[in-house]
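Comment thread on ticket #2218

A.B. wrote:
> Attaching the input chain for the structure job we discussed in standup.
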Amino acid sequence: MSGSAEPYGREGLPLEEARRRVLAAIQPITASNTVPLQQALGRVSAAAVLASEAVPGFRASIMDGYALGQSHQPKPGETWLLKGRSAAGQPFNGTLANGDAIRILTGAPLPDGAGWVLPQELISIDGSSLQLAKKASDRPWIRPEDEECRPGDLLLSAGQRLGAADLARLAGCGIADLTVAQQPRIGLLISGDELVPPGTARQPGAIWESNGTLLETMLRALRQSVTERRVVADQPDALRQALLDLAHDCDVVVSTGGVSAGDTDWIRPLVAELGAVDFWKLFLRPGRPFAFGSIGEGVPFFGLPGNPVAAAVTALQLLWPALQVLEGQSEPELFPRVMVELADPLSRRPGRPELARARLDTNAAGKLLARVDGSQASSRIGSLQQADLLLELPAEAGPLERGTRLWAQVIRQRIF
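C.D. wrote:
> Ran it. Output below, let me know if you need it in another format.
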């Protein structure tokens, strides 16, 4: 298996250089609005949030047991007089003196004078008298009043994308509403004479349009939303008008198809006419026919390839970081990279660097494995199904043996 299967040679921008140029050209949207916490998941904070008070605001028991009127470690055989009970939301009203104790439940406030909590399993009870039956830990089992935060602590930075844990912490600190950055309005243009809607009959040579569904739902999973979506035939006047309309109504225009060099690939020359093309072609597989530029008064334009897998991969690598910057995120979040081993041999010819779709697995020894199933053709959407990884295959790599170690991007999303 010698030589190169690539018809284009070493042309196009390397992915890292393309990403650098894209991000250097993007300016954040400055508008913001205030929303309830429940509507802020996946949004970007527009301002820093500081704690107004200590949380939980009182010393609390870490477990069910007995709070003692002392702050030194008790010894087996010591006794205390039971004075009352403290539960969450129903604190004991009073002060504990040396030799006093109260029954206390997990999360309940400690009264003044209490400095130690004993687990209930260590205590023997005779009426109102408590005795330590076993040796106690040297830990007092008390949660401090400022365990979560102190007044003035930074709870959230500006430009931070909000996860479930961020929102829960804000709620736990008494915050109900949050100022978030305006999300970018995305205009999506799908071009092609051969495209027909799913569910309709198709003539010979026609294909059911899937890129719109793929890109729109993928962006939704990334907490972005397409504002307007158009499917337009390969007619220059109709495409020109669609580009102008989307640039007028949206903050970013994304197209798929029509950016290569074929007889009916009108998108790239139209963008050059209506604005500017910054670069065209990536030194990447899948995704060589990719264009980036602007339309009109600097509206960013992303021309994704027409093949669905290439469109999805380049959107993840270049469009998604740009959308994060547009929304005001302080640092675009790229997918984490891990070292994996090939679970099976992989047939390949040298050519372009490749991002192969793979499932993440482990072997009996706990090593991370990458499983590449079926064809990696950029037209085969099935290669995206159940994909956990984008496996980074170097340009010079030929056939790869089982056990070959490679870097891979983890494309499963975080929960918190």
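A.B. wrote:
> Thanks. Noting for the ticket: The longest strand covers residues 354-362.
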